[in-house]
C-alpha cells in the first residue's frame, strides 16, 4: 500500500544471477547480502538474504511492494548475528517477474503458500514472519495454515477484514497521478507508469471484489488457528488502516500483544526504523 523510496547505501558486485552487496550499517560494519532468484512451484522468486543467526525471519512487503521499497532499513539494520533475514518480492512484484501479477480471489492465500514454499526451498522448516500491510495479511494466513512452522510473527498495518469506509479510501487513491511524488516515483521506476497504474487498479478491483463476495472478510475465520506468539504494531496516524483493526487482531489471536506508535503512520517502520527494529528484534530473539 504505502511505499517509500530511500536511496541505497551499498556497493553491488554482480556474478551471474547472484548480486552480492556490502551493506553499510550504523556501526560501519559491512555485512554481505545475497540477492538471487530461486524456482518455487514453477515460479522464479527473487529474494535477498543476510545474516548468520540461527533464527530465520521472512519479511513480507505490502501491495505492489518489493524488498528495497518496503524493507531497506530492516534488511540493512536488523541484528544479523542473532537473525538470518530473508526478504522476498512476491511473484509479479519487484524482480519476481515475469509473469505479471494477477489477483484471483485467493491471491492472499496463494502468496502465503508461495512464501511458505520459498522458505522450505531455502532449507528453513521453521521461521518467523514480519509482514507489512498486505504482507501482514499474508503472514496471518501463513501462520494459520502452517502453525507448526512459525516461531513468532510481527504484523503491522494489517487487517483481517475490510471496513466499508476503507473501500472509499481505496477508490480515492486509484489514480496514481493523485499520489505524492515520494510515493509514486519509486513504483514507476520499478514497473513503468502504465503497468504500475494497471496493476494498482487491478489490486483495488480485487480487494473491492473480495469486500462484496466475502462481506469484507479477508482472514477473520482463520485467526483462532494461529499458535505463535504475535506482536501487532499499529501507527496511530495510519490513514490506510482504521484503528479498530489492531484491536480486533489482539482480541482474536491468542498469545498476542499490541504496540502503538503514537506518531507513526502506515509506513512507521521506515519513518521510525531504529525504534521499530529494536522493538521487533527484542520480540523475536526472546523465543523459547
TrEMBL record:
Origin species: Acromyrmex echinatior (Panamanian leafcutter ant)
Highest taxon listed in the record's lineage: Eukaryota
Keyword Hydrolase: yes
UniProtKB keywords: Hydrolase
Alphabetical list of Pfam families matching this protein: Abhydrolase_1 (PF00561)
Protein name: Valacyclovir hydrolase
Keyword Hydrolase applies: yes
Domain AB hydrolase-1: from-to ranges: 56-163, 167-270
Gene3D superfamilies cross-referenced by the UniProt entry: alpha/beta hydrolase (3.40.50.1820)
PANTHER family, alphabetized: VALACYCLOVIR HYDROLASE
GO molecular function, one term: serine hydrolase activity
Amino acid at each position: 500500500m504505502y511505499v517509500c523510496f530511500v536511496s541505497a547505501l551499498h556497493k553491488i558486485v554482480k556474478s551471474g544471477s547472484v548480486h552480492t552487496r556490502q551493506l553499510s550499517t550504523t556501526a560501519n560494519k559491512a555485512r554481505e547480502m545475497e540477492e538471487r532468484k530461486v524456482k518455487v512451484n514453477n515460479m522464479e522468486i527473487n529474494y535477498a538474504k543476510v545474516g548468520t543467526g540461527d533464527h530465520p525471519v521472512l519479511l513480507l512487503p505490502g501491495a505492489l511492494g518489493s524488498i528495497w521499497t518496503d524493507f531497506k532499513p530492516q534488511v540493512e539494520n536488523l541484528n544479523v548475528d542473532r537473525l538470518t533475514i530473508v526478504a522476498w518480492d512476491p511473484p509479479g512484484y519487484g524482480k519476481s517477474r515475469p509473469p505479471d501479477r494477477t489477483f484471483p480471489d485467493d491471491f492472499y492465500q496463494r502468496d502465503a503458500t508461495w512464501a511458505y514454499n520459498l522458505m522450505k526451498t531455502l532449507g528453513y522448516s521453521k521461521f518467523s514472519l514480519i509482514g507489512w500491510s498486505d504482507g501482514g495479511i499474508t503472514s496471518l494466513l501463513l501462520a494459520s495454515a502452517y502453525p507448526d512452522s512459525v516461531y513468532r510473527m510481527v504484523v503491522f498495518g494489517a487487517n483481517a477484514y475490510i471496513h466499508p469506509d476503507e473501500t472509499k479510501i481505496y477508490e480515492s487513491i486509484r489514480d496514481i497521478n493523485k499520489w505524492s511524488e515520494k510515493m509514486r516515483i519509486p513504483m514507476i521506476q520499478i514497473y513503468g507508469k502504465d503497468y504500475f497504474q494497471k496493476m494498482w487498479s487491478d489490486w483495488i478491483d480485487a480487494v473491492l471484489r473480495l469486500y462484496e463476495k466475502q462481506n469484507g472478510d479477508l482472514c477473520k475465520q482463520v485467526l483462532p488457528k494461529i499458535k505463535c506468539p504475535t506482536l501487532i504494531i499499529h501507527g496511530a496516524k495510519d490513514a490506510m488502516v482504521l484503528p479498530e483493526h489492531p484491536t480486533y487482531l489482539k482480541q482474536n489471536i491468542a498469545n498476542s500483544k499490541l504496540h502503538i506508535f503514537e506518531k507513526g503512520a502506515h509506513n512507521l517502520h521506515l519513518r521510525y526504523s531504529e525504534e521499530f527494529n529494536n522493538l521487533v528484534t527484542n520480540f523475536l530473539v526472546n523465543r523459547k
